[in-house]
Specification:
Elements lengths: L1 H24 L8 H4 L5 H4 L5 H24 L4
């Protein structure tokens, strides 16, 4: 059990580091003045899921789910 716990802890640390990096790479939601006038409904606004930022958002979601699952698993008491 200790080997599994060590492996899960190392995976947890890697996910934490990856989450921090991905969050820092993303742009803010209110980037630029285009959001005030409604210019977000352009081609790039509609196809955001296919862009690099859309990919970063998807990866961040999956890593956050993994983070939560590993947190629960690592806090279970194995007696």
């Amino acid at each position: 059990m200790t080997v599994l716990r060590i492996i899960l802890t190392l995976l947890f640390i890697l996910i934490c580091i990856a989450l921090v990096i991905l969050v820092l790479l993303q742009e803010g939601k209110s980037a630029g003045l285009g959001s005030i006038s409604g210019a977000a409904e352009t081609y790039w606004g509609k196809n955001k899921g296919r862009s690099m930022e859309g990919t970063l958002v998807k990866i961040t979601k999956y890593l956050a789910i993994g983070f939560l699952l590993l947190t629960v698993i690592l806090n279970l008491t194995f007696i």
